[in-house]
């Protein structure tokens, strides 16, 4: 406690915040369990579940075979039976092996059963590039999942959201996919006790501004904030919007920020063609066209498999300089 009797901020990392969220969930509800490849003895491919096996035992921290379709399907079955499973998939690339389970079962059973079969399942997976893990471990496919009705898609970009998004996700009666950008696990900072439950329905403004809106999510948030800092030295006031929830998108937040600044740059680590950035750009054109003083700019990854070589990988990904350049084009 601080001198004024308020809880102190604690220094932590994104990885540790997610681990504490898992620990809280496991302690709070006996129906909650974690399953996935190497989540037990190894402590998770990215170290998120380290120590949980020793604390909660193998019935609740379950190592699975290397079969995404099988263990995601098992998670769906457990959710249908009244459990609250958390399924970890190592990377979004590997989730494609379970796409049939996610799309044809988890997302559709409530609808196809006339509301009789909710699937309260949480699936966590790592997304994104920037760590020299080559093409099969580095893509940003969360926009594909944001295309699917019947699921909620979350992208925690901050330590606070990593710590506090899991609880409302578990309380959601529908399947929830949580995309954790791999570059964020080592990010550190102060974690304040929550003033209220984290809102998983709405985007949030991370930095207010008046001249241009930088709209992004997940691992690109820090780059957008750095771009806003650079633009401020040139007298350009950039508002940074963190989408947080990719399905359903917060239309009101998008239209509100465009109404304030009249210019928009959308930063999305996915490929440009058919991307989430394309969807947001279309919505702005449909709903805020007459608010715009310049065409919408999009900053996305190069349309290539993510390269292994560091300089090529950096060249393929959206960088702060690219965001600044897009803002300059919009501001004119």
Strand order of the largest sheet: 3-2-4-5-7-6-12
Mean pLDDT, all residues: 95
What is the count of β-strands? 14
Label the structural class.
Answer: alpha/beta
Keyword list:
332 residues, alpha/beta, seven-stranded mixed β-sheet, 14 helices, 14 strands, 36% helix
Write the SSE topology.
Elements: E1 10-13, H1 14-28, E2 32-36, H2 52-56, E3 61-63, H3 68-80, E4 84-91, H4 92-95, H5 99-106, H6 109-112, E5 122-127, H7 142-145, E6 152-154, H8 159-164, H9 166-171, E7 176-181, E8 188-191, E9 204-207, E10 212-216, H10 221-232, E11 238-242, E12 245-247, H11 251-261, E13 264-271, H12 276-287, E14 297-301, H13 310-316, H14 320-331
Parallel strand pairs: 2-3, 2-4, 4-5, 5-7, 6-7, 10-11, 10-13, 13-14
Antiparallel strand pairs: 1-8, 6-12, 9-11
How would you concisely characterize the structure shown here?
Helix content is 36%, strand content 21%. Helix 11 crosses helix 12. By secondary structure, the protein is an alpha/beta fold.
């Amino acid at each position: 406690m601080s001198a004024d009797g308020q809880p102190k901020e604690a220094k932590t990392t994104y990885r540790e915040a997610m681990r504490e969220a898992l620990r809280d969930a496991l302690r709070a509800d006996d129906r909650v369990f974690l399953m996935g490849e190497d989540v037990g003895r190894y402590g998770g491919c990215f170290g998120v579940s380290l120590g949980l096996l020793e604390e909660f035992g193998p019935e609740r921290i379950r190592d699975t075979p290397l079969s995404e379709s099988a263990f995601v399907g098992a998670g769906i079955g457990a959710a249908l039976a009244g459990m609250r499973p958390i399924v970890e998939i190592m990377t979004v690339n590997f989730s494609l092996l379970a796409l049939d389970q996610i799309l044809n079962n988890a997302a559709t059973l409530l609808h196809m059963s006339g509301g009789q079969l909710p699937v309260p399942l949480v699936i966590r997976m790592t997304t994104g590039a920037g760590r020299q893990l080559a093409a099969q471990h580095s893509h940003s496919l969360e926009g594909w999942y944001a295309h699917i009705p019947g699921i909620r898609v979350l992208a925690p970009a901050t330590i606070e959201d990593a710590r506090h998004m899991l609880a409302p996700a578990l309380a959601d009666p529908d399947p929830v996919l949580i995309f954790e950008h791999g570059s964020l696990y080592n990010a550190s900072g102060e974690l304040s006790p929550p003033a209220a439950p984290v809102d998983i329905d709405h985007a949030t403004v991370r930095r207010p501004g008046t001249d241009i809106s930088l709209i992004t999510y997940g691992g690109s948030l820090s780059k957008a904030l750095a771009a806003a800092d650079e633009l401020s030295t040139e007298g350009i006031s950039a508002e940074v919007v963190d989408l947080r929830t990719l399905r359903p998108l917060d239309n009101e937040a998008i239209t509100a920020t465009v109404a304030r600044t009249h210019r928009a740059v959308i930063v999305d680590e996915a490929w440009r063609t058919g991307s989430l950035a394309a969807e947001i750009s279309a919505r702005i054109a449909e709903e805020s066209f007459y608010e715009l003083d310049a065409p919408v700019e999009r900053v996305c990854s190069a349309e290539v498999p993510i390269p292994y070589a560091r300089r090529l990988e950096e060249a393929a990904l959206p960088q702060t300089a690219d965001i600044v350049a897009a803002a300059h084009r919009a501001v004119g």
